[in-house]
Specification:
Layout: E1 2-6, H1 11-21, E2 25-28, H2 46-61, E3 65-74, E4 81-82, H3 95-106, E5 113-123, E6 128-139, E7 155-157, H4 171-177, H5 179-193
Parallel strand pairs: 1-2, 1-3
Antiparallel strand pairs: 3-4, 3-5, 5-6, 6-7
Helix pairs in contact: 1-5, 4-5
Length: 195
Protein backbone atom coordinates (compact mmCIF):
# COMPACT_ATOMS: atom_id res chain seq x y z
CA UNK A 1 0.00 0.00 0.00
CA UNK A 2 1.35 3.42 -0.98
CA UNK A 3 0.81 6.44 1.26
CA UNK A 4 -0.26 9.71 -0.35
CA UNK A 5 -1.24 12.84 1.51
CA UNK A 6 -4.50 14.48 0.47
CA UNK A 7 -4.34 18.17 1.35
CA UNK A 8 -7.84 18.45 2.77
CA UNK A 9 -9.66 18.51 6.06
CA UNK A 10 -12.99 17.72 4.37
CA UNK A 11 -14.05 14.21 5.40
CA UNK A 12 -16.72 14.03 2.66
CA UNK A 13 -14.07 14.60 -0.02
CA UNK A 14 -11.68 12.17 1.66
CA UNK A 15 -14.28 9.39 1.62
CA UNK A 16 -15.32 10.07 -1.99
CA UNK A 17 -11.75 10.09 -3.24
CA UNK A 18 -10.67 6.98 -1.28
CA UNK A 19 -13.61 5.03 -2.77
CA UNK A 20 -12.49 5.89 -6.29
CA UNK A 21 -8.73 5.46 -5.79
CA UNK A 22 -9.18 2.06 -4.18
CA UNK A 23 -7.24 0.00 -1.66
CA UNK A 24 -3.76 0.15 -3.24
CA UNK A 25 -3.27 3.71 -2.00
CA UNK A 26 -3.79 4.88 1.56
CA UNK A 27 -4.87 8.49 1.81
CA UNK A 28 -3.34 10.38 4.71
CA UNK A 29 -4.39 13.84 5.85
CA UNK A 30 -2.30 16.84 6.94
CA UNK A 31 -3.52 16.62 10.53
CA UNK A 32 -1.88 13.19 10.82
CA UNK A 33 1.43 15.03 10.42
CA UNK A 34 0.57 17.79 12.86
CA UNK A 35 -0.27 20.24 10.07
CA UNK A 36 -3.33 22.00 11.41
CA UNK A 37 -2.93 25.52 10.06
CA UNK A 38 -5.01 26.90 7.21
CA UNK A 39 -3.51 25.78 3.90
CA UNK A 40 -2.78 28.78 1.63
CA UNK A 41 -5.25 29.25 -1.22
CA UNK A 42 -4.50 32.66 -2.72
CA UNK A 43 -4.35 32.04 -6.47
CA UNK A 44 -6.96 33.21 -8.99
CA UNK A 45 -7.55 29.88 -10.76
CA UNK A 46 -8.53 26.37 -9.69
CA UNK A 47 -5.23 25.10 -11.12
CA UNK A 48 -3.23 27.66 -9.16
CA UNK A 49 -5.00 26.97 -5.86
CA UNK A 50 -4.73 23.18 -6.18
CA UNK A 51 -1.01 23.39 -6.98
CA UNK A 52 -0.35 25.87 -4.19
CA UNK A 53 -2.00 23.58 -1.62
CA UNK A 54 -0.24 20.42 -2.86
CA UNK A 55 3.18 22.09 -2.87
CA UNK A 56 2.64 23.51 0.61
CA UNK A 57 1.78 20.13 2.17
CA UNK A 58 4.47 18.29 0.18
CA UNK A 59 7.12 20.64 1.59
CA UNK A 60 5.78 20.16 5.12
CA UNK A 61 5.63 16.35 5.18
CA UNK A 62 7.95 15.20 2.37
CA UNK A 63 5.49 12.64 0.98
CA UNK A 64 3.72 12.57 -2.38
CA UNK A 65 0.76 14.89 -2.04
CA UNK A 66 -2.29 15.98 -3.95
CA UNK A 67 -4.87 18.70 -3.51
CA UNK A 68 -8.02 19.62 -5.34
CA UNK A 69 -9.86 22.82 -5.94
CA UNK A 70 -13.43 22.87 -7.13
CA UNK A 71 -15.69 25.62 -8.31
CA UNK A 72 -19.31 26.00 -9.35
CA UNK A 73 -19.61 28.32 -12.35
CA UNK A 74 -23.00 29.77 -13.33
CA UNK A 75 -23.60 31.28 -16.76
CA UNK A 76 -26.09 33.94 -15.65
CA UNK A 77 -23.76 35.30 -12.95
CA UNK A 78 -20.67 35.56 -15.12
CA UNK A 79 -19.15 32.42 -13.60
CA UNK A 80 -19.91 33.13 -9.95
CA UNK A 81 -19.20 31.75 -7.44
CA UNK A 82 -16.26 30.14 -9.26
CA UNK A 83 -13.06 29.90 -7.24
CA UNK A 84 -14.90 31.45 -4.28
CA UNK A 85 -17.51 28.67 -4.13
CA UNK A 86 -16.57 27.48 -0.63
CA UNK A 87 -16.68 31.00 0.81
CA UNK A 88 -19.23 32.64 -1.46
CA UNK A 89 -21.36 34.00 1.39
CA UNK A 90 -18.28 35.25 3.26
CA UNK A 91 -15.80 34.00 5.81
CA UNK A 92 -17.31 31.97 8.63
CA UNK A 93 -20.41 31.09 6.60
CA UNK A 94 -21.45 27.55 5.73
CA UNK A 95 -22.77 25.63 2.72
CA UNK A 96 -26.36 26.57 3.54
CA UNK A 97 -25.42 30.28 3.51
CA UNK A 98 -23.63 29.83 0.18
CA UNK A 99 -26.70 28.19 -1.37
CA UNK A 100 -29.00 30.93 -0.07
CA UNK A 101 -26.79 33.61 -1.62
CA UNK A 102 -26.59 31.73 -4.93
CA UNK A 103 -30.36 31.27 -5.14
CA UNK A 104 -30.96 34.92 -4.21
CA UNK A 105 -28.56 36.07 -6.94
CA UNK A 106 -30.23 33.81 -9.50
CA UNK A 107 -33.77 34.90 -8.59
CA UNK A 108 -35.62 35.93 -11.75
CA UNK A 109 -32.89 34.58 -14.06
CA UNK A 110 -34.12 32.23 -16.77
CA UNK A 111 -30.66 30.90 -17.63
CA UNK A 112 -29.91 28.36 -14.88
CA UNK A 113 -27.02 26.65 -16.67
CA UNK A 114 -23.98 25.91 -14.56
CA UNK A 115 -21.04 23.58 -14.36
CA UNK A 116 -18.72 22.21 -11.72
CA UNK A 117 -15.00 21.91 -12.38
CA UNK A 118 -12.46 20.11 -10.22
CA UNK A 119 -8.71 20.32 -10.71
CA UNK A 120 -6.38 17.93 -8.88
CA UNK A 121 -2.70 18.83 -8.52
CA UNK A 122 -0.21 16.09 -7.66
CA UNK A 123 3.29 16.84 -6.40
CA UNK A 124 6.12 14.46 -5.55
CA UNK A 125 9.91 14.73 -5.56
CA UNK A 126 10.11 14.49 -9.35
CA UNK A 127 7.00 15.99 -10.88
CA UNK A 128 3.88 18.09 -10.81
CA UNK A 129 0.75 16.91 -12.62
CA UNK A 130 -2.77 18.31 -13.13
CA UNK A 131 -6.03 16.39 -13.71
CA UNK A 132 -9.41 17.95 -14.48
CA UNK A 133 -13.05 16.91 -14.36
CA UNK A 134 -16.22 18.76 -15.34
CA UNK A 135 -19.96 18.17 -15.17
CA UNK A 136 -22.63 20.39 -16.72
CA UNK A 137 -26.10 20.95 -15.34
CA UNK A 138 -28.54 23.53 -14.04
CA UNK A 139 -29.25 25.20 -10.71
CA UNK A 140 -32.62 24.30 -9.21
CA UNK A 141 -34.95 26.91 -7.68
CA UNK A 142 -35.16 25.02 -4.39
CA UNK A 143 -33.17 22.40 -2.49
CA UNK A 144 -33.77 18.77 -3.42
CA UNK A 145 -32.32 15.83 -1.51
CA UNK A 146 -30.61 15.17 1.80
CA UNK A 147 -27.26 13.68 0.72
CA UNK A 148 -24.00 15.09 -0.56
CA UNK A 149 -22.51 18.36 0.57
CA UNK A 150 -21.88 21.89 -0.63
CA UNK A 151 -24.13 22.89 -3.54
CA UNK A 152 -25.31 19.30 -4.20
CA UNK A 153 -28.97 19.95 -3.21
CA UNK A 154 -29.38 22.62 -5.92
CA UNK A 155 -27.26 21.13 -8.73
CA UNK A 156 -29.08 19.03 -11.32
CA UNK A 157 -26.48 17.23 -13.50
CA UNK A 158 -27.09 16.74 -17.22
CA UNK A 159 -25.31 13.37 -17.16
CA UNK A 160 -27.84 11.55 -15.00
CA UNK A 161 -30.98 11.40 -17.18
CA UNK A 162 -32.32 14.69 -15.76
CA UNK A 163 -34.14 13.31 -12.74
CA UNK A 164 -32.01 13.86 -9.66
CA UNK A 165 -29.94 16.49 -7.92
CA UNK A 166 -26.48 15.47 -6.73
CA UNK A 167 -27.92 15.32 -3.20
CA UNK A 168 -30.44 12.67 -4.30
CA UNK A 169 -27.84 10.32 -5.79
CA UNK A 170 -26.05 7.59 -3.88
CA UNK A 171 -22.33 8.26 -3.37
CA UNK A 172 -21.54 5.57 -5.95
CA UNK A 173 -23.80 7.13 -8.60
CA UNK A 174 -22.47 10.60 -7.86
CA UNK A 175 -18.87 9.38 -8.21
CA UNK A 176 -19.71 7.89 -11.61
CA UNK A 177 -20.73 11.22 -13.12
CA UNK A 178 -19.31 14.01 -10.98
CA UNK A 179 -16.55 16.47 -11.78
CA UNK A 180 -14.52 15.19 -8.82
CA UNK A 181 -15.11 11.58 -9.84
CA UNK A 182 -13.83 12.28 -13.36
CA UNK A 183 -10.72 14.09 -12.10
CA UNK A 184 -10.00 11.41 -9.50
CA UNK A 185 -10.35 8.59 -12.04
CA UNK A 186 -7.79 10.33 -14.28
CA UNK A 187 -5.53 10.79 -11.25
CA UNK A 188 -6.00 7.16 -10.13
CA UNK A 189 -5.08 5.91 -13.62
CA UNK A 190 -1.92 8.01 -13.47
CA UNK A 191 -1.02 6.60 -10.03
CA UNK A 192 -1.55 3.00 -11.12
CA UNK A 193 0.57 3.45 -14.25
CA UNK A 194 3.40 5.12 -12.31
CA UNK A 195 3.69 2.81 -9.30
Amino acid sequence: MIDIVFATGNRHKLREVQEIIGPDFRLRTPDEFGITEEIPETQDTLEGNALQKAEYINKKCGLPCFADDTGLFTDALGGEPGIYSARYAGEGKNASDNIKKLLANLKGKTNRKAHFRTVIAYVDADRKELFEGRVDGVILDTLSGEGGFGYDPVFYPDRYDGKYSFAELSPAHKNEISHRGEAVRKFAAFLRSNR
